[in-house]
Sequence to fold (253 residues):
Amino acid sequence: MSIQLTINDVEPYVIQDTVMTTLTNSGYLLYTLNMLKSLKPFQLDKKVFIVCVDKKCSEKLKKKGYDSIYINEEYSPFSKYNSTEYVKICYLKLELIYKILLHKNVLLIDGDIVFRKNPMDDFSNLSNNPKVDVWIQNDSLDNNNTQNMCTGYMLIRSSDKLIKLYDVISEEGRKKYLKCAFNNNDQTYFNDFVKPRCSFSALPLEKYPNGKMFYDNPMLDPVMVHFNWLEGHLKMAKMKEHKMWLLTREEEV
Fold:
């Protein structure tokens, strides 16, 4: 199973030499639709390059007006943390990043994110800073603690260096990935293999809070909220608690 894409696939989604992208499957589709709906007020929901693991997911998106490409599986369930399906999804995220970096910068967005403001307001300042290879969400509770970066939201500049770092396809790249295959996967891959070898900057927690940061500080006025630090469909319950589950019942069908 591999992602097949060309520059022609991503070209319609390019904004300032960057492709916003997300990976989803049938089991995760409602979260992705919720994330996309949060981008709709800024006319950005149709600018996300969506890659589906399974055909059914892609067909449902098409019925809702979203184009996507799919890999080839018949059905892909909601993946529990560190399950076999989770490992597969995380590997595909890394492969997706690598294949887009061959052509353009990447802004990766996980489906359990809800946007409260237009992310493009910060985008130009971030993407035009040549000194930073990767802007990324912080998964700690302190801006000064950059030990564990969160790969659910990150802007990666395309360069020979980053392309090589995100190569998980070659024999050497696969060996690197396997070292973290059952240990938070793509996030461990970034923190262990990418972060020490690139210039990165953590996005401010006040504007780009991870789940724990927001749950502890619900009065924040952020650009977006990442509903991580939760497993399974507790994410949906927490989104509803904070009035950030945007889909109507009709849209959930």
User: Anything to note?
Assistant: The domain at 7-252 is CATH 3.90.550.10 (Spore Coat Polysaccharide Biosynthesis Protein SpsA; Chain A). The longest helix spans residues 84-101.
